Amino acid sequence: MVFTGGPGDPRKVAQQGVDMINSKDFAGLQPLACKKDQEDFQKMLDTFEGKSGEFDELKEFGVTDSDIQKLIDGMKIELQLGNVKDNGDNTATAKVTGNMSITADVEIMGQNLADLIPDQPIDEEFKLIVEDGSWKLC
Description:
Helix content is 34%, strand content 32%. By secondary structure, it is of the alpha+beta class.
């Protein structure tokens, strides 16, 4: 007997997530998010669109919306997908490593903001679950 229509390999969704993050396609991540994390994904999307989050704090120091867009555009994210483990219970984990850096030329109080923000090493484990018959990042 052959079964079809299952969720398939979780690696495919994990790789889609990594690829979208690397290309800064944060809106594209939204459909990959599980229902319970939809709000968190929206907050991340808003932050990287300069609508809220940590970038709001910069406005208090005179950083303009244009400067924030330069920072976002100057952000470089380089993630690699490592081991993906299907736990066999409709959950999986995916090892993700890499680096995030900012190369934008934006000044705040006479200093280049990119020089003040150190590169961020990334060493995370994405969790995935099967929801409505598909793998989702959760």
